[in-house]
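Section 5.1 Outputs to date
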Amino acid sequence: MILVRLLIHAITDLKGQSQYAFLLVTRGVVERTKIQSLRTLPFYPLLFAIHPVLALLGSNVNEVDSVVLWRPMAVLAANAFIVMTLLRFLFRDWHRAAITTSILLLLFFTYGHIYNYLKTVRMAEFVLGRHRLLMPLWIGLAAFGCWWVTRKLRNPRLLAPMLNFIAIFLLIYPALQIISFIWSEDHARKTAEHASQEMAMQLPLGYAPDIYYLILDGYGREDVLGSVYGYNNSSFLSNLEKMGFYVAKCSCSNYSQTMLSLPSSLNMNYLDELGIELRTGSRNFSALKPLGQENAVRLYLENHGYHTVSFETNFPVSEWEDADYYLAPPPEGLNNFELLMVGNTAGRVYLDLFSDPPEEKSATWYRVRTLFALQQLEEKVLAIPGPKFVFAHLVIPHHPFVFGPNGEPIQPIFYEPSEMEFSMYRKGYIDQVIFINKRIEKLVRMILNGSSRPPIIIIQGDHGPAPWGVRENRMYILNAYYFPRGPSGLYESITPVNTFRLIFNEYFGANHQLLVDVSRFSKYADPFDFTIMPNSCEY
């Protein structure tokens, strides 16, 4: 107390600049002490815990909505903090607890990647990817890490600044990926809004017809199904024609991938004409998601009194969560992003031993979403007051193959074509064609019988089958139209880019010039490296 009083007395005796200088020096010492404490504060385990979530989203930001990261980030950060707190009470040292937690996180997050790789490695017909081999090794590494931290590491406090810096540095790149994607989305939304304002609204029909736009993902053209898959689809198409449909038997898709095809058809234009950059070697789809969600067709119809109906699809480009009616099955357990996340960690052990593998869970969700959408289309959507624009992207007959020909669940579920021989792929694909044919026929009859005024119905593949990249197979699609006044303006080789140009001309008093029908094939590895495919009527 005597020393404190002497210090206070000395400060009060200082005059003018001397007193001010003393205070500045004292403040600087305090601030440097705070900065040094912050640098050595071991917060890096929390950042290591959330890094895999950000990295996974950054590499898949084209396919998933960024909101999916919050739940796994919160869970992982909370669990990392709990583990670090428990280890602090065990070791009586925050720094040893932090380093041990980081070692456990490293082992936890690398387990699934190593396991998935080893599943593909065989030694004399023996698969190395087995939990009973990998788990003891990982437990041994965890035990060794704990022993090293407690017995061999002398001053863990010295590692904190470096590990904090590394943890922050690791978050920069995925964060920039996500931020860049979000910025590009906003720019593309403005492009779609501008396009929707250039149309007129007249109704030669005398009323605003309900519009059903049914996308059957990966549904191929009749000649491809016959020549490549050995299936005669003429009965289904004949039944559609008897109900008044026009089947465009020479139709091709404009693009070979869903993420490219739907934004093009819903904005009635080719992608390079929509003001977005299509750079060869890039997989940046940031502009495509808003062009799919806030598209010119939707905005135009909404601005003229239409109610919009959309469904959960697991494809952000076709999910309109802000639609007037957004229909999704009740959530059950982990979503697809979280399943992918868990499948790359030691959580894979639990899923494989006590639950379904993540690939099978994800495929099952495809089944749930498809059945839910079909049920809602049959039972609820018809009762929604019109005029309405119903956009239903059904991920079928596209893999994964989860339906038998009568809609029954099948086992085993094969998620990727790479897991199958062609004969197996062909059977799974055709079984799902048979099933969806039955449900679409039933649905169309219900729509026609339940509509007070004739609607517009489009049944269209966004691309064809061909998982191995066969260009001709991939571009040939089912494309069928029901128009209230018959097939006026339709022609055999019409492509999706002209679908709504023709509809708005015929039924909404617009004057759009039909575009030249062009098919652009590209591979998933380089989606903007296009090869022009001839729009042929012969396969």
